[in-house]
């Protein structure tokens, strides 16, 4: 199990700045269905190492009930991308959940042991539809290990295009 812990120094309040507006990100674990409260889809990285990022979560670090998933695939170009990715074929997948250590709030990021993502992404339209499955081993607060196997779907609109599209539409009305 590979994981990293992050802590909110001084327990400063976190701002949820990407509430789901037109994004749909859902998952099911052991017959329990969850719809993300926050979603994100964007292109990120350096000029030589770009990736597409897909994220969905519920809860928050402040409330100590954050729970979500992030998946990334390599950026190739602005052509429509349709295919299936695995961890061995360029997919990165992690699970995030709240933790508390000595009163210090934070979150743990656990890398998937196994994951598959089938995706159709249109960079120009700014849309992505995906279906994913993954396996994670997480440590519960009582130190017991738990295997979680989410199966999920998402239908997202690119965050990094929303502002651009808004201002282009606005300029056409002036």
Give keywords.
174 residues; mainly beta; seven-stranded antiparallel beta sheet; six-stranded antiparallel beta sheet; 7% helix; globular
What does the main sheet amount to? 7 strands, antiparallel
Number of strands: 13
Q: Could you report the average pLDDT, rounded to the nearest whole number?
A: 86
Distance between the termini: 55 Å
Order of helices and strands: EEEEEEEEEEEEEH
Overall 3D shape? globular
Number of helices: 1
Rg measurement, Å: 17 Å
Number of self-contained structural domains: 1
Low confidence ranges: none
Structural class computed from helices and strand pairing:
mainly beta
β-strand percent reads over 45%
Residue share in helix: under 10%
Descriptive account of the structure:
By secondary structure, the protein is mainly beta. The protein has one domain (3-9, 18-171). Helix content is 7%, strand content 57%. The protein contains one helix and 13 strands; from the N terminus they run βββββββββββββα. The strands form two sheets. Strands 2, 3, 7, 10, 11, 12 and 13 form a seven-stranded antiparallel beta sheet that branches. Strands 1-9-8-6-5-4 form a six-stranded antiparallel beta sheet. Strand 4 (38-46) and strand 5 (49-58) form a beta hairpin. The radius of gyration is 17 Å and the shape is globular. The mean pLDDT is 86.
Topology diagram in text:
Elements: E1 3-7, E2 24-29, E3 32-35, E4 38-46, E5 49-58, E6 67-74, E7 81-86, E8 92-101, E9 104-111, E10 114-122, E11 127-139, E12 145-148, E13 151-157, H1 159-171
Antiparallel strand pairs: 1-9, 2-3, 2-13, 4-5, 5-6, 6-8, 7-10, 8-9, 10-11, 11-12, 11-13
């Amino acid at each position: 199990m590979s994981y990293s812990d992050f802590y909110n120094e001084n327990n400063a309040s976190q701002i949820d700045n990407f509430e789901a507006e037109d994004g749909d990100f859902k998952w099911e674990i052991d017959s329990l269905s969850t719809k993300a409260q926050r979603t994100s889809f964007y292109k990120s990285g350096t000029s030589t190492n770009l990736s597409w990022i897909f994220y969905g979560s519920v809860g928050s670090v402040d409330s100590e009930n954050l729970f979500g998933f992030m998946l990334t695939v390599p950026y190739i170009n602005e052509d429509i991308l349709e295919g299936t990715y695995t961890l061995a074929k360029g997919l990165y997948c992690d699970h995030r959940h709240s933790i508390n250590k000595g009163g210090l709030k934070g979150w743990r990021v656990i890398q998937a042991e196994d994951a598959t993502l089938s995706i159709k992404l249109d960079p120009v339209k700014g849309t992505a539809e995906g279906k994913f499955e993954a396996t994670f081993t997480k440590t519960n607060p009582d130190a017991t290990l738990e295997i979680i196997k989410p199966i999920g779907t998402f239908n997202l609109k690119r965050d990094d295009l929303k502002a651009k599209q808004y201002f282009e539409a606005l300029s056409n009305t002036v």
